[in-house]
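Before the break, one more example. Copy the sequence into your notebook; we will annotate it together after we see the structure.
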Amino acid sequence: MSQVLFTAFSNRADAVQLAHEAGRRLDVDGVSSSLHLLDDPDIPKVDDTTLVVSLGGDGTFLKSARLAHLIGARVLAVNLGRLGFLLNIPSTEIVEDAKRALDDNDDVVERLALRISVSGTDINEFALNEVVVERASAGHMVRLKTFVNEEEYLTYSADGVMVSTPTGSTGYNFSAGGPVVEATVPVMILTPVAPHFTIDRSIVVADDKVIRLVAEDKSALIVADGQGIGSLEPGQFVEVRKSPTPVRVVATRSFDLAFRLHESLREGHA
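Here is what the structure looks like once it is written out:
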């Protein structure tokens, strides 16, 4: 079984080439490695001792994090994208950081993840960034009533409503006007998307709460980390809570959020 599992999409020739080059260098030092293409639906033969090394942008990292979370492994985020809000390892340092991570199992930051369930179904999904309940038809809003634990909060007529983690706060949540939250803060963020005649501010709650989104009068789609996972009919609801197991992200170097915010605004990514 490989000590290091590189992950990439097959259409990223640069990532595949980097995986092979880094693998040869690791092999010289007695470290075994393999490459898993994220387009492949099969789960690779790895366990919680394997180091998952994501090669790409934020989308690659999210899918790699899902795989790592499934097997309880650590994930190292290597940036091959333009900026990469979630990524803090430059491609030139991949071998050194992988070896450092293998030598130090304590060098890990635990990122809050979401567990998503849907009433009347057996859906039990994971998200690291966010889950969105959004309109099913173009040109129509969705009406969603929100609860935190059993207390009713607001009812939104909007393009959608999302629940984001601190890790995901710099993604869709940020684009929708939500706050940027330091990744280690134990909260969940409830943010409406283009609400109509209602409050457009986010609500931040402690991560031990359960958030419920109830479809009022129209069907809606459920999207987790950019992937469709199901739908709601009127009266059905989504429940979102903290996953009992976090995503274990290797922290061989500091994550400079301020720098990434400055760069994003300067380059017009935000």
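The longest helix spans residues 13-28. The first strand starts at residue 4 and ends at 8. Try to locate both features in your own notes.
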